[in-house]
Design brief:
By secondary structure, the protein is of the alpha+beta class. The protein has one domain. It contains two helices and three strands; from the N terminus they run βββαα.
Length: about 90
């Protein structure tokens, strides 16, 4: 587990394992994943969502609005530097 927060959307494989931070789930073959799950380097997991564009967006929203904003106390403190820059730009 990391001491900083670096979130991403993971894919849940058929065996239950989750993809890593380097896997761009939007570029994988259709039906590779059973679900998408918001995930953070600190160990936090969001709720499983459908493995489709709406589910991907929901995971991103859950990660930012639920996890990152609450663990950073509404600031960018504690976020991985790359995530903090993206969050500050609003992307």
């Amino acid at each position: 587990m990391a001491d900083f927060h670096c979130g991403y959307v993971a894919g849940r494989y058929r065996d239950g394992a989750l993809s890593d931070t380097w896997t761009d789930v939007t570029r994988c073959a259709e039906r590779t994943f059973l679900a998408y799950v918001a995930r953070c380097g600190c160990g936090w997991l969001g709720d499983p969502q459908p493995a489709n564009p709406d589910g991907y967006y929901t995971c991103q929203h859950e990660l930012i609005s639920t996890h990152l904003s609450s663990c950073a106390g509404g600031t960018l403190a504690g976020l991985h530097p790359t995530v903090a820059r993206r969050h500050a730009r609003g992307s």
